[in-house]
Amino acid sequence: MHKKQFSTPPRRVALFVTCMVDMIYPEVGMATAELLERHGVEVVFPYEQTCCGQPAFNAGYRDEARLLAHRFIEIFEPFLQQGLVDAIVVPSGSCATMVSHFYAAALFEEATDTAVRQRAEALAAVTFELTEFLVDVLGVTTTNSRFAGKLTYHACCHLLRELKIDEQPRQLLAAIEGAEMVELTGAEECCGFGGLFALKNANISTAMGQRKTRHLAESGADVVALCDVSCMTHINGLLSRQAQRCRAVHIAEVLNSQVDVAVAPPTVAPSAPEKRSRRWQDQKTK
Amino acid sequence: MTTSVIDLHAPYKERVADALNNKHLKTALNRSTVRMSAQRISAMGAVDGQTLRNQVRQMKEHVIANLPDLLEQLESNIQANGGQVHWAQDGAEVNRIVLEIARKANVQKVIKSKSMATEEVHLNDALEAAGMQVVETDLGEYIIQLNHEPPSHIVAPVIHRRLEDIAQIMQDKLDMPPTLDPEVMCAVARVKLREEFLKADMGVSGCNFAIAETGTICTVTNEGNGRMTSGMPRVYVVIMGIEKIVPTPEDAFLQYQALCRSATGQNFSVYLSMTSSPRQPGDADGPEEFHVVLLDNGRTDMLEKGYGEALMCIRCGACLNVCPVYREIGGHAYGSTYSGPIGAVISPILHTDVTNSEKLPHASTLCGACREACPVKIDLPRLLLDLRSDQVQAEQGSWFDKVAMQGFVQTMTSRARYENAGKLASVGSNLLAGLTGGNIKFMPPPLTAWTNSRNFPPFAKHSFRELWQERTSRRKEISGERTTPPAP
Predict the structure, then answer these.
(1) Ramachandran region of residue B364, left (φ > 0), alpha (ψ -120 to 50) or beta?
(2) What is the rounded CA–CA span in Å between residue A122 and residue A125?
């Protein structure tokens, strides 16, 4: 993947917020925008954006994914060509991989789709994952964030092994004031989400996720930061079902200093209705 | 008792459920896969691992591009050395060829050195059905043969058993006193196997790599059973997949290095056995007959269908050891001779009768750990994606998947439909979440598969785009000018 080298730091970026952040976790999108603005970057949000096509692509539906890829290019390309923005920033390792790697490498063949492929490659050169953009493009070494508590990091698969981004988020987390960084065993192991895998192979997915949450419990972390809300959803889905205190939080929120352990979400009681006593008096005792 | 109940032909879902419910399997896999991965990393780190991988990759690319020529070169060199070469289209043909060799040489007892190719074609069953006695001589294979189990790993066939289970099997089947000392168990097996080696008429092995330039078959073992299989019986038969070929002795040592370091984390295996010919006049020992069976069984299909990269595999098992899916379910759940990421790629293409092989390309999160571990840098996630795409192209996907995916894309190709779907999901999911206190704990099928074990958050009441629009217009009001450029 050839990335554009900027002679002057980009001043304006288009935010591809991703459909999951848009619809489920708007606070992650807001934190991303604020974080970028705090570092002197103006954020533009193209309202036509929806999904990058990753779910269809991963399931083997390439014609369908191609439609969405095409649409993505049509939406973001004019912003770049008209000089309204210098780059595209994505707060997700897997969606960034889809746009900056799989569009050109898998969806548009060199021989048959030469023109679109070139457009996809041009787009790929200026598409950055959030922490990659902060560290590699803007040269940020610290986001001047605060966090009171134990913090650890889960390396999401696409971010780590497709985009090779690992040092950047770790460096930003390590620079957070007040945070005690703790080691997570198997930090680079998959959490078991895998898109439709989580449904089609739900029991394997769960077993993998339970391995992750076991390691999280052992780490003693209050918060595990990560760069993808899909993995975050999976890990939190298990942590909250298990009534663990630890929570997975998107790195944008951590770096934007919005995570405060003191007012962490109340823990939910484990759901085991078959074991619950029918007498209300007993339910109060723990 | 540890009598095996492993049914490779059970439906995929059953195989997986059985594996996940097997506590001992989990223990065994946890112990071994983590250790083997750590050993690999340290052994590859002791040399310039990246350069080694690049070199092997380059060599294998050359091999795949020149496969027909190299195979013919191998054939003519083996023949020139006095060996015989047989070509087999599929498993049935391999078995027919080997049975014919055995019949002509009046073979009663067969010893085998570990071979996945013979597992692939079920050679043992064919030999036993013809009345021959077959004994596996690799220690791991010997143990599972005692318990009538198929191997569950490319290089560590008994990885699905804990030490405690193995002790029990040996106690039951070999009448040995109970012990947890691997050395004692090994010594007992050694005595038993030594008798078998001395009595055998025919030795059968696989092939780790064959050198085209010299017509040499190489087998890599740590127990020396490879040499005894090739050297002691009257007849030696090699079954090799057509991709197990290297051009020169230099290339062989390149692959040998990558194999040992990646498979077991050794610098070198204890034995490397090379056979180029039957016994020559004046030789003290060696087989009177030397046969090499070249097996296709779907390998040329792999090339034709665009999966030639999978033929570069040197069967080190590194991708299995790092695979988070394999670590949970082990090898038998794949239902194939080949498990883990490489098994998920090649099992659906090879001509084998794997039950529900169409499920295997989906038994992966595409996490990419396998590609990082692979000494030949095979892009396994990409091959799995390609297989999934091929299934869709061939209309092999489920009707439900297709409708769901088309609906999804239909929604996502229009801003209005997308925004409306988001609002609908927000109302619906908040209703569900309201019932169970903040998080969704139940969703209707097929999403039940998620909520059976995991919570799901409700959709936001206001999407990011709504919040952003609100923020933008508020800022506009305050500053009295645009803060964002107009959309093109």
Answers:
(1) beta
(2) 5
Query: Read out DSSP for B289-321?
Result: EEEEEEE-TTHHHHHHTT-GGGGG-----HHHH
B296/chain A closest Cα distance in angstroms: 28
* pLDDT tens track for B131-145: 999 999 999 999 999
Q: Tokens representing B102?
A: 């055995």
Suggest the residue from A12, A34, A48, A64 to mutate for an interface test with chain B (most B CBs closer than 10 A). Answer: A64
Query: How confident is chain A (286 residues) per 10-residue block, as mean pLDDT?
Result: 89 98 98 96 98 97 96 98 97 98 92 92 97 97 94 98 98 96 97 97 98 98 98 98 96 85 49 47 45
Contact B464 A22 (CB under 8 A): yes
Q: What are phi and psi of B142, to 5 degrees?
A: -60, -45
Backbone dihedral angles phi then psi of residue A147, each to the nearest 5 degrees: -155, 125
pLDDT digits (tens, 9 = 90+) for B221-230: 999 999 999 9
pLDDT-based confidence at residue B398 (cuts at 50, 70, 90): confident
Per-residue model confidence as pLDDT tens digits over B402-460: 999 999 999 999 999 999 999 999 999 999 999 988 899 999 999 999 999 999 999 99
SS3 content of chain B, % helix, strand, coil (to 5): 55, 10, 35
The structure tokens 């993947």 sit at A1
> Domain B50-301 is classified in which CATH homologous superfamily?
NagB/RpiA/CoA transferase-like (3.40.50.10420)
CATH 3.40.50.10420 positions along chain B are 50-301
- Give pLDDT, residue B4: 60
As beta bridge partners, residue B294 has B87, B240
pLDDT 10s digits, B79-110: 999 999 999 999 999 999 999 999 999 999 99
Among B126, B30, B20, B418, which Cα is nearest to A202's?
Answer: B20
B258 CB-contact burial (10 Å; exposed 0-12 / middle 13-18 / buried 19+): buried
**B260 CB neighbour count, 10 Å cutoff:** 22
Q: Which domains, and CATH codes, for chain A?
A: 12-137 (3.40.50), 146-263 (3.40.50)
Mutate to test the interface with B, among A44, A98, A161 (most CBs of B within 10 A): A161
Residues of B in contact with A233 (CB under 8 A): 456-457
Q: Which residues of B touch A189 (CB under 8 A)?
A: 324, 367, 369
CA–CA dist B324, B363 (Å, integer): 10
Cα-Cα-Cα-Cα torsion B419, B457, B432, B399, nearest 10 degrees, comes to 70
